[in-house]
Amino acid sequence: MPEHGMGTDPTSGVRHQSDIAIESSTEHTDAGPVFARFTRPRSDVPTTLAVVSDMHVSTEKQGTWKVFHRTQSRLRTVLADANARDVDAVVFAGDLTEDGATQDFETLDSILSTLEVPFFAVPGNHDVPKSFDAHETPALSSFESDFAHGGLPFHERIGGVDILGLNSAETPDGSLADSHDGEISADQLAWLDDNVPNIDTPIVVMHHNLSGLSCEEGVHSWRSSFPTRNADELVDLLARHDVPLHVSGHLHVPSVTETNGIREIVVPSLCSFPQAYLLFEIGPAGTTVRFVPTADPEETKEAYVHAKRGSARSDAVAEMTLDRLSALPLADEWPSTVN
User: Fold this and answer.
1) Which of 25, 36, 117, 233 is 20 to 30 A off residue 84, Cα-Cα?
2) pLDDT in tens, 137-146
């Protein structure tokens, strides 16, 4: 991957962070730089959501590009920030744990007990049982009970918007048990088809991604093992119902893309560089999405170094992330006269 003129010091590429004013999120007066602005979704009831993805909370693991030894502190920072900002809800876009070990879910539960606002989550491929895991992972029904208010898919009205949560990580026939791929089951597609026409302001959230980024050269050369298998079928349904926004995680590369007219936001990873979440501010003029870091400069540098030294994949993810963060906002549909 290109080194951006970094010479022999792999950490000097972090200079991009100063370009977008990334700083510790303990400062609540500034919600962070604009990540994207859309004319839709809109709401007459101003609504603020904290959207978090790929926490990979780990009790025992250390290091790697996912910086496992920081995962608990990163999550605590997000929750404290969400409490301080008094957001309407926190939405988690999957991979809450690293491989779904019982002790990791127990640690996650303990940390989430400090959250003072409602929260909702969809599962990621690391949150559900896999045939290749050496440990036992709680069944999906346990995840639904603890994090999805009793069931998946779910519909939650938050302020002036409607969150539609889908399970892309596990299918009833077990077809994903041997893979980190995603899929939306036929029953969920039917549920969407029936419910979306009756919903005012839908935002669809799931862990896996649509196909809009798959043709971008170099970005997902490692992604072929992790797609949403029936993404095109889902996109056709969302387009038919004019859904204004799809939100996912999974890739660890913050992105904005479009597939057949459907806007998609890929949320940054909380565990790996850049260790951030997104703040959605939805009002009458549209939606402003802000990038909110959760690590101080030294911690950000640590995560970047881990990514650079981890593997070709993690190096590529770090460089792609830098490219995006140096070009914020990634989309801006608002007229220049709107502040």
Assistant:
1) 36
2) 999 999 999 9
